């Protein structure tokens, strides 16, 4: 962790960085180990462990964003594609890697059958599980010196990329975390008053 950064400092510093480059502050082996630790230890509802991740580095990362362009180009008006969509996708491609977050529906269905009283909640809880993995990975990478931003090109790209990397078709793509060296900083962020968001009862000191 950069300069022994505390967890709360890492949380504070985790921002959306869109100007990214290929100057990775950690090796591929170290990146994979970070992801392994996240997947191993981030909690899930009823210990479902339903999150699946695909880590794309170097040329495989670039391939993902080229495939995204292939899918999106026919669906976006040409002028809009040229002026907005293509430059944005090229910006993601310029980064070092992407982490694809999937949810495997089978553990969720197993829990629905095992705990019918809560069956209608397990879909939501699966989303919570995925979100925790996304946040943990984003924060961990930031703490190690990377910049990152979270994208959601699902479900438009799902079938194309699942075919490319032999991902089971029943898995549901939930998000794509793009990361790399920092070539810029995050913009100013506005915060609503904590008094409108946090309510404490019973505190004594």
TrEMBL record:
Record GO terms (molecular function): oxidoreductase activity
Sorted UniProt keywords: Cytoplasm, Nucleus, Oxidoreductase
Compartments it resides in: Cytoplasm; Nucleus
Signal peptide from the UniProt entry: none
Domain Nitroreductase stretches: 11-180
UniProt GO BP: cellular response to oxidative stress
Taxonomic superkingdom: Eukaryota
Stored InterPro entries: Frm2/Hbn1, Nitroreductase, Nitroreductase-like
Name of one Pfam family that matches: Nitroreductase
GO cellular component entries: cytoplasm; nucleus
Family that this chain belongs to: Belongs to the nitroreductase family.
Name of the featured protein: Nitroreductase family protein
Species in which this protein is naturally found: Karstenula rhodostoma CBS 690.94
Highest classification ranks of the organism: Eukaryota, Fungi, Dikarya, Ascomycota, Pezizomycotina
């Amino acid at each position: 962790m950069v300069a022994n950064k505390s967890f709360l400092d890492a949380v504070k510093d985790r921002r959306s960085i869109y100007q990214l480059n290929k100057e990775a502050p950690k090796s591929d082996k170290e990146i994979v180990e970070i992801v392994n630790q996240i997947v191993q230890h981030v909690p899930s509802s009823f210990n479902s462990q339903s999150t699946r991740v695909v880590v794309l580095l170097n040329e495989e990362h670039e391939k993902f964003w080229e495939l995204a362009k292939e899918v999106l180009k026919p669906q976006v008006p040409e002028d809009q594609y040229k002026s907005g969509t293509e430059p944005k996708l090229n910006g993601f491609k310029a980064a070092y890697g992407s982490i694809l977050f999937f949810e495997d529906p089978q553990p969720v269905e197993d829990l629905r059958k095992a705990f019918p009283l809560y069956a209608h909640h397990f879909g939501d809880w699966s989303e919570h599980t995925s979100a925790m993995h996304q946040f943990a990975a984003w924060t961990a990478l930031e703490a190690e010196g990377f910049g990152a931003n979270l994208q959601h090109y699902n479900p438009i790209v799902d079938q194309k990329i699942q075919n490319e990397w032999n991902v089971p078709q029943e898995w549901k793509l939930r998000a794509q975390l793009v990361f790399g060296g920092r070539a810029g900083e995050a913009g100013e962020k506005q915060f609503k008053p904590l008094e409108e968001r946090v309510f404490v009862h019973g505190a004594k000191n």
